[in-house]
Structures are given as structure tokens and as C-alpha cells.
Input
Amino acid sequence: MYFAWLRERLDKTEEEVEIPSSVQTVGELMDWLKTRGEEYEYAFDNPKVIRAAIDKTHVRAEAKIAGASEIAFFPPMTGG
Amino acid sequence: MYFAWLRERLDKTEEEVEIPSSVQTVGELMDWLKTRGEEYEYAFDNPKVIRAAIDKTHVRAEAKIAGASEIAFFPPMTGG
Amino acid sequence: MSGETVRITLNPIDTDAETRAVSQAGGNIGAVVTFSGICRADEKGDKISALFLEHYPGMAEQEIGSHVEEAKTRWPLLAVRVVHRVGRIEPGEVIVFVATASAHREAAFQAAEFIMDYLKTSAPFWKRTEGGSKEAWIDANEKDDRAAARWK
Amino acid sequence: MSGETVRITLNPIDTDAETRAVSQAGGNIGAVVTFSGICRADEKGDKISALFLEHYPGMAEQEIGSHVEEAKTRWPLLAVRVVHRVGRIEPGEVIVFVATASAHREAAFQAAEFIMDYLKTSAPFWKRTEGGSKEAWIDANEKDDRAAARWK
Output
């Protein structure tokens, strides 16, 4: 799932993807997504600012993605 | 002027008094008031806890009373 | 409802109207903090039927007013309102109401706390419980003195 | 009005009703603090006609809920309410409302600030200005990160 400017840059809210078995962490998933086309390269241009959640819980780039049913990427939160 | 339990112990809200010229500070005024009767002795029993104001401004026991038109004594404030 | 910043009243406080007045004061308001101090049914373990609040008329308004001015020099406030009730107050009723508005939340929160810490320790108001003995005046509280001292 | 502690809504927030719900929650409430975050007409010097707020449904409610639980373990709170608006919000309208009730003011003030600092930095909401370019998403703010870090 993608939110805010990530969603706009990719022009999609969510997608289902087959992830290669070599991709094990959230950080590796971002690197792999970047190879999927220009819009992904643009969206994940600066992976340091991008936050992630697995199954609606905040995680770091080192988090393992095994067993996740929903992974979300989004910019730093600006609520309130 | 007297407030809260000072007012109740003295059974008066305010009074006009002729102050002897030897009484120059707020602290001395409290000592002098204590000599004016039992109820004053009771009211000013523990002068350390009593606060004072001259013309509606907080003052310390060392403050000079010369020129004051209104002197108030009261317990520690418990507003809010 | 009055437009005055500081008010002392014998009547119940309309916190909705007071909050609205502050929120709609204009300027670039981004944060409004309100505090309501409510009469508890329980004062240090004793059930009470009401509180009675006494104040020093004239001095109370003047003192609160100058403390509000002090808050305005410390934080960029766009609106402030302080309403303090006196007389007989029953459990559940509002004793004191403070509202602050600013562009950002830090200023609004800090100014509201600053004003409340002051009202608890230095504004000429005294509380006693009703029904108890004549001498049932509520003692000043060390915790409040410490809270007020942090702004010095 | 709903009795839920945490709510995300597309509709205007009725701060009077929310404040009343918290004030009348029962128990020995002596202090109620409210915070309203209001849409400013001015975002870093630019006039704006509206903000647009996006959230991560499900995660936002869950995250705020667990942060409210954390606040309840830190302070003796008698009632808490958090209402966050999403969608299109015009200047002067309330974006977020937090109310806390406790026996004493310190807990109510601190819990309200704790919840707000969290909402600004860690709850999955994103703001952009309307009318500007698609990429007019508002950047996260270092001051908010520092404010949130003080509770760690």
C-alpha cells in the first residue's frame, strides 16, 4: 500500500506483487521495487525518508518481510 | 483588610486604625496588631504563613508601610 | 458573553462560549488549549457538598491581568481568556477556566500551564469547603508551589 | 455523538460535545484539558484555501488507540478523547481534537501534550495543501520530532 506522495508518484494505492525470495527485508523490498520502472525509481528516490509498516505496525528497513500480509510505504507522518 | 480565615478569626472584613509611628514595616504592623486583643493574637499566631498586600500589590514583611492607603492580610492563596 | 480577557464571576462559566471567543479571535490561530478546573466531590478523602471561593476584589483582576501580560511577553499568543468563579460552587461545576490561542501548540500549552500554576499559588483567591467547620479553609499545596516555581 | 475514545471522521468536529463527554465521564474529575488543532489560512507564508488530510485506515485508529493506552499507564487519567478529521478541511476548521480528564491538572496537561506530540509525528496521517501542485505535501517538522522525543 502506498500513501501521500508515494501514492501519487506511483499512481496507485496498492498492488499485489510476487517478491523474489532473495528479497528478505523492508529495505531490500524498496531496492527491488525501484527496479520496476521509472515511477518506482522516482517514488523511492530517497529511501531514507520513507517509512514502512507491516500489517499496520511501524517497522524499520531491517525488518523481515516473511509472513507479512500487508506492507505499506509512506512519507514521514504529518498529522494533527 | 482581612481575608479567609484571618477575616473569620477577627470577625471583621476591614478596619481603619491609627498606627503608631514606631511601626514602619508590614512585619512590625503584624506584631503591633497582635497586641490589640485575643482575637488578633489568634489570627496572627503564625505570622510566617500570612501574606500581605499594600494597595493591591503583594509585599514582603520587610516592606515599608509609609504612604499605603490599603493594607491587606491573608493566608496563602488557594485559587483555581 | 463578555469580550474581556479576565473576568471574575458569581455565575456558572459557559466554557463553550468562552472557547468559541478565543478560537474565533482572528489572526493565524492554529492551536487552542483550554483548561477547566472542576469542583471535585472529594477533597483529600472527605466528601464535600460544595466549595466556597472568596477573593480580593480589585486585586484579583489586576493580578491576573498582569500575569496574562507576562504570558504574552513570553509566548506569541493570539488570544487569552481567564474566567474565575467565586461564591458557592457545587461538585461538577467549573471553578476556573483558561483558554489560550497561538499559531502553534507549544505556546498555547505552555501559556495555559503558566497561567494555571500562577492562579493556584499567587492570585488572591481562597477556598473553603461548605458544611465543614468555619476553619475548613483549604491549605496551600507544596506541589502547586513547585509547579509555579519552574517558570521563575 | 459517539462514546468511542478514538475516532477518525470526515465530518466537522463538535468540540463542545466532545468536551462535555470527557468532563462528564464521572469519577473524581478535577481538571479537563482540551487541545484543538485548527487549519491555518497560512502555511509557511503561503495563503491556502484548504488542507487535504489522508490517513491509513485501520492503522491510524489502532496506533492512536495504543498511544492512548500508553498515556493511561503514565498518568492517572479518568477520560480521554481523540478525534482526528480527514479529507478536505478549510481554514478555521478543527483538524484534531484531544481532551483529557484527571483529578489534577498536571496529569491532564501532560497527557494531552504527550498525545499531541505523538499525533504530529507518528500517527499515519499526511497533509497537503489544496490548490497547489500535486506534490504540495507538507513536510515533517524537526521541532515536532524533538517534542515527541522528550517522552522517550
About this structure: Residues 4-74 of chain B form a domain with the Ubiquitin-like (UB roll) fold (CATH 3.10.20).
